[in-house]
Amino acid sequence: MVTHDFSEAHFLAQRVAVINAGRIEQVGSVRGVFRRPATPFVARFVGMKNIFAAEFNDSLARVGNLSFQLAGPPKGHSRIAFRPEDVRLFNTPPEGRPANLFKGVIGRISNQGVFADLVVDVSDLQIQSILATSTLHTMNFVPGNRVFIKVAPEDIHFI
Q: Are 66 and 126 found together in one domain?
């Protein structure tokens, strides 16, 4: 079966091949391709919207003016990527000193009904997040709000 909708493939298939311009970019289980895309094209196709070129130094990735703590060294990769649903937003900084906590400003909110897409301007990056609409309203998030974002090291993938 051929589809351009990964959610449809996720529902119907056990294994997938993602094709770009007539070439196979990645083959594997639906879960494996979804959780660990091998190329930027596959990452975008499965909804991993935060993809950034990075410079690596052991378990740190430098992206623009930000340094991300990684769960381990990247071994030959040139980008980091993380899913928008793995970006946590806070009105005040969480307790302790969590890794990858950054200050930002909500730039745009697109309400999709049950969930909302947010773009947060952090330093020189635009980081995308997805929240339940109920959380959006409970936290009183609106464009222009200053927020804190956190991305756990284990949620950062290497591409």
A: yes
Token match 């997040």: residue? 129
Helix (H) or strand (E) segment spanning residue 34: helix 30-35
Q: Which pTM value belongs to this model?
A: 0.89
Q: What is the pLDDT along the chain (159 residues), one digit of tens a residue?
A: 788 877 787 788 889 999 999 999 999 999 899 888 999 999 998 889 999 999 999 999 999 999 999 998 888 889 999 999 999 999 999 988 889 999 999 999 999 999 999 999 999 999 999 999 999 999 999 999 999 999 999 999 989
78 and 151 together in one domain: yes
| Residues spanned by the domain of 4 | 1-47
CA distances from 137 to 3, 7, 10 (A): 35, 27, 30
